[in-house]
Amino acid sequence: KNPFSNPEVIQKIKKHYFDLYGKNHVKQKHLDSDVYDILHNEEKFKSIISGKYLEQIADELQVSPGTVARSINFYNCENLLGKVQRSLWEIKIGEVLDKYNISYIQSSRKIIPPKEIDIYIPEYNVAIEINGLYWHSELSQGRGRYYHYDKFISCKDKGIHLYQFYDDELKNSYDIIISKILYLCKKHQHNHIGARKIKDISKLTNFTDEVKFLNDNHIQGRASNRNVSIGAFYEGNLVGVLTGYNKNNIFNLTRYSTKKDYIFSGLFSKMLKYFINEYSFKGVIQTFSDNRHSNG
Q: What is the torsion angle, in degrees rounded to the nearest 10, for the CA atoms of residue 113, residue 118, residue 121 and residue 126?
């Protein structure tokens, strides 16, 4: 029998961490004392969350939405949340669309009934869905594992490109996502530079530069599983990165990204050709497409 399931052992562990950090769990040691007190005091917690939505509460307390969601579950007080269905990110994206005079429809069940679409931009056949990473998994029940995929297919069948983002992606890559949305709506002024002007393509040996570039320009950030890293430079500046894992004559392309706010026509082909020549590669090249962010 697992000793960690023993109530006495659990209490001893809690006491140990409380004596060390003043908290019941090691993962809570970073929490501000006032925040910790709110999360562990039902009356205070309920008064704080009343009439608000999940992301707003998490932002005010400076904790993750998951931490808030667990307390809401523990105190069984979901009914106290605000009735406004729009999330913080839906509101922020809506404000950007308003700024650029892009017409859109919010929270509609008429596009792919009975499912709801958070934001639909009819002029460009673009739909945007904000998926609360913790909210959906911990509070919302009754949705099958293919719920979001079914939405993607339903939109595709109607010629609508559905882009789905999790709240943590928006938090970590907000500028990248907004740049993409404005590009889809033909509102972003990108700098166009032809690949023929890129004279310097070489192996990227500075891991720090690679990580920073991908974190700044690719929604998924850097790739940990790679043994090939290639950089493209324009006027001495890194403007493109291609990474992958090369083994047994199979090259798995894990990341390709160019500097946001720029379009480098033909650069991908040029960088891939460099890889083939530099590594004398004659095998199979494969990659994947995250259909939440692209259309393959």
A: -80
Q: CA-to-CA distance for 70 and 177, rounded, in angstroms?
A: 28
User: How far is residue 185 from each of residues 85, 96, 181, 189, measured CA to CA in Å?
Assistant: 25, 12, 6, 11
Query: What is the length of the chain?
Result: 296
Amino acid at 92: K
Q: What is the largest CA-CA distance in the chain?
A: 69
Locus of tokens 């907000």 = 174
| Neighbour tally for 253: CB within 10 Å | 20
What mean pLDDT is predicted for residues 53-62?
80
pLDDT tens for 127-175 read 999 886 555 554 454 566 777 888 899 999 999 999 999 877 888 889 9
Tokens 């950007």 belong to 96
pTM given for the model: 0.68
- Expressed in angstroms, the distance from the first to the final Cα of the chain is 48
